[in-house]
Write a structure and sequence with these properties.
Helix content is 83%, strand content 0%.
C-alpha cells in the first residue's frame, strides 16, 4: 500500500509541473525555465558563501562555514515548503476519498510528508550545491562529496519538522477562525518585510559574521549544537554525522507521531457537514435572488478569495510588495533624490520606476487561476442561468479591486519622490493602470484556454498551473518589448519622443493588447466556457 501511495504522490508531483503538456518540446522548454530559475538563485548563494568561506577556513573554522550554510539551507527549506504544508496535508481534495478506503490515516500522512520531503530537498539543493562547490574549490578535499551526499538526504528533515508543526498550528487555528486566510496574509506580510530588511542589510550581516566569528562559534556550540554537529559532519567527522542523523530522525519521529494522532480530526475539522453545506447553498440562492447578478458574482469571488489562503497568498503577493516598495521609497526619498540628481541625465528614473511597478504588478494575477480553482464545482456555475461574460467580468473586477489600489499608492509615492512634472505624472498612472488591465484580461484568457481541474490542492492550481506561468511570461515579454522600443526610440530616433511620448506609446500598446483580448473573449468566451 505504501508503494502504491508513493507512486501516486510522485505522479501528482510530476503533474504539478507538466499537467496537460503533450508536446515534448514544450516540456523541455518548461524544464529549462525551471532550471534557469534554480541556477540563478543558486548563483546568488554562491557569491554569498564565497564571501564567508576563505576567511573562516583561514581561521580554522571550517565547521562554522558549514554551520552557517546549514542555517541558510534550513531557512530555504522552511520558506519553500511552509505555505504548502496545510494545502497538501490537510486540504488535499482527495483526502476524504483516501480516508474512506482501508488506509490508515498515519500511512496517508507519511506519504504526504514524504512528498513534502522531496520538494524541501529540491529547495535546499539550491543552497547546498554552491556551498559544497565553494568549499571544495577552496580546500580541495573532493572526497567530502560522499559525506555531503549523505547529508543531503538528512537535511530536509529539520525543515520538514518545522514546516509541519507550523502547518499543524495554522490548520488548528483555521478550523476555529472563519477567515483563516487572514493568518496566511499576516505571515506573508511578516515574511516579505523580513526579506526586504534582510536583503538591504545582507552585506552588513556578512561583515558581522566574519568579524565576530569566534563569538558566533561559541554560541552555536552551546545553544545550537545540532548545527555544530552538522558543521563537523560536513567537514568529514563521522561521529558528528551519526549524531546529527540521530537528532534529525528523532525530531521527525516525534513530530510524525504527534501529527498522526491528530491527522484525522484536523483534516475533517475544516469540512462542513451536509446541513451546513445546505445552509450555505440556501444562503447563496437568496444572495442571487436579492442582489444584482454582477454584485452577487463579485461577492462570490471575494468570498472564495478570502476563504482560500493559497489563492490569496500567491495571487496578492505583488500588491503586498507594491505597498512595501512605496513605503520604502517614501522612507528613503532623500537617497532617491540624491541618485536622481547625480545620474538623472544618464538614467531615466521615471521610466525605470514605471517598469518596476509593472513588473511587480505582473506577480498579482488573480484571473489566471480563477477558473481552474472552481474545480469540481464548475458545474454549479454552468447550471445557473447566468451570462458567461458576467461570470468572467466578476473575476476581472476582483483582480482590479486587489491590484489597482496598491498600484495607485506606488504611483503616488513615485510622483511625490521623483516630482517628474504634470504630464509625466499622468503618464506614470496611465502606463501602470493600462498594464494592469492587460494582465487581468490576459490571465483570464490563458486560464480559459489552459484550465487545470484535476488538482488535489488549490495550491497546485494557483501556483503551478500553465495558465499562471504563461501569463507571467507573456507579461514579462511585453515589458521586454517596451524596453526594446525605448532603445530604438533613444538610439535610432535620437529620443525625439521624449519620456512622455514614449510612455504614451507604451500606454497605447497596453490598451491595444487589452482591447484585443477583450474582443476575443467577448466573441469566444461562451463557447470555450461551455466546453469546459
Amino acid at each position: 500500500m505504501l508503494k502504491t501511495l508513493m507512486k501516486k504522490q510522485l505522479t501528482e508531483f510530476r503533474s504539478v509541473l507538466f499537467k496537460g503538456v503533450k508536446s515534448k518540446l514544450l516540456m523541455v522548454v518548461l524544464s529549462l525555465l525551471l532550471l534557469y530559475a534554480a541556477v540563478s538563485i543558486g548563483f546568488l548563494f554562491y557569491f554569498m558563501v564565497s564571501t564567508l568561506c576563505e576567511p573562516l577556513v583561514s581561521a580554522g573554522l571550517d565547521w562554522l562555514y558549514f554551520a552557517l550554510a546549514g542555517m541558510m539551507t534550513l531557512v530555504m527549506g522552511v520558506v519553500g515548503s511552509i505555505f504548502t504544508v496545510k494545502p497538501q496535508l490537510y486540504d488535499a481534495r482527495d483526502n476524504e476519498l483516501l480516508l474512506s478506503l482501508p488506509i490508515k490515516p498515519s500511512l496517508l500522512l507519511l506519504v504526504r510528508m514524504l512528498g513534502l520531503y522531496v520538494s524541501t530537498l529540491l529547495f535546499q539543493l539550491i543552497v547546498m550545491i554552491p556551498t559544497t562547490a565553494v568549499y571544495i574549490s577552496t580546500v580541495g578535499q573532493s572526497w567530502l562529496i560522499i559525506v555531503h551526499l549523505i547529508l543531503l538526504f538528512i537535511m530536509p528533515l529539520p525543515a520538514l519538522v518545522i514546516s509541519c508543526l507550523i502547518g499543524f498550528i495554522i490548520a488548528k487555528i483555521s478550523s476555529k477562525v472563519r477567515h483563516s486566510s487572514i493568518i496566511g496574509i499576516a505571515l506573508l506580510f511578516a515574511f516579505i518585510a523580513v526579506y526586504f530588511y534582510a536583503s538591504t542589510q545582507l552585506q552588513n550581516y556578512l561583515t558581522v559574521l566574519i568579524d565576530k566569528s569566534s563569538e558566533i562559534s561559541i554560541f552555536i556550540k552551546t545553544a545550537l549544537f545540532p548545527l555544530y554537529h552538522f558543521g563537523l559532519a560536513a567537514c568529514g567527522n563521522i561521529l558528528s554525522l551519526v549524531i546529527y542523523a540521530l537528532i534529525c530522525a528523532a525530531l521527525f519521529a516525534v513530530v510524525y507521531i504527534l501529527l498522526s494522532k491528530n491527522f484525522l480530526t484536523t483534516t475533517l475539522a475544516g469540512k462542513r457537514s451536509a446541513p451546513e453545506k445546505k445552509l450555505q447553498l440556501d444562503k447563496n440562492i437568496k444572495l442571487f435572488a436579492s442582489s444584482r447578478t454582477d454584485k452577487a458574482l463579485l461577492r462570490r469571488e471575494l468570498s472564495h478569495l478570502i476563504g482560500s489562503p493559497a489563492y490569496m497568498l500567491n495571487c496578492c503577493i505583488g500588491s503586498v510588495m507594491l505597498i512595501i516598495a512605496a513605503a520604502a521609497m517614501l522612507i528613503n526619498r532623500s537617497m532617491v533624490s540624491e541618485l536622481t540628481a547625480e545620474f538623472g541625465d544618464l538614467v531615466p528614473f521615471a521610466l525605470i520606476a514605471i517598469l518596476v511597478v509593472c513588473y511587480i504588478t505582473s506577480m498579482s494575477i488573480l484571473t489566471a487561476p480563477s477558473i481552474s480553482i472552481e474545480g469540481r464545482t464548475l458545474w454549479l456555475l454552468k447550471s445557473l442561468p447566468l451570462n458567461v461574460n458576467g461570470i468572467l467580468r466578476a473575476k476581472v473586477r476582483l483582480h482590479l479591486i486587489f491590484t489597482l489600489p496598491p498600484i495607485t499608492i506606488a504611483d503616488l509615492a513615485l510622483i511625490f519622490v521623483l516630482r517628474p512634472g504634470i504630464l509625466m505624472s499622468l503618464m506614470i498612472i496611465l502606463v501602470t493602470v493600462s498594464f494592469d488591465f492587460f494582465v487581468a484580461l490576459l490571465g483570464l484568457m490563458m486560464n480559459l484556454l489552459m484550465p487545470f481541474f484535476n488538482w488535489t490542492s488549490e495550491m497546485v492550481a494557483v501556483k503551478q498551473s500553465l495558465s499562471v506561468l504563461f501569463t507571467m511570461l507573456i507579461s514579462w515579454g511585453i515589458l521586454i518589448l517596451s524596453v526594446g522600443l525605448y532603445f530604438v526610440s533613444n538610439n535610432v530616433l535620437d529620443n525625439v519622443l521624449g519620456d512622455v511620448g514614449f510612455s504614451a506609446i507604451c500606454t497605447l500598446l497596453y490598451i491595444a493588447a487589452a482591447a484585443s483580448i477583450a474582443v476575443y473573449l467577448k466573441r469566444n468566451a461562451k463557447r470555450i466556457f461551455d466546453s469546459l
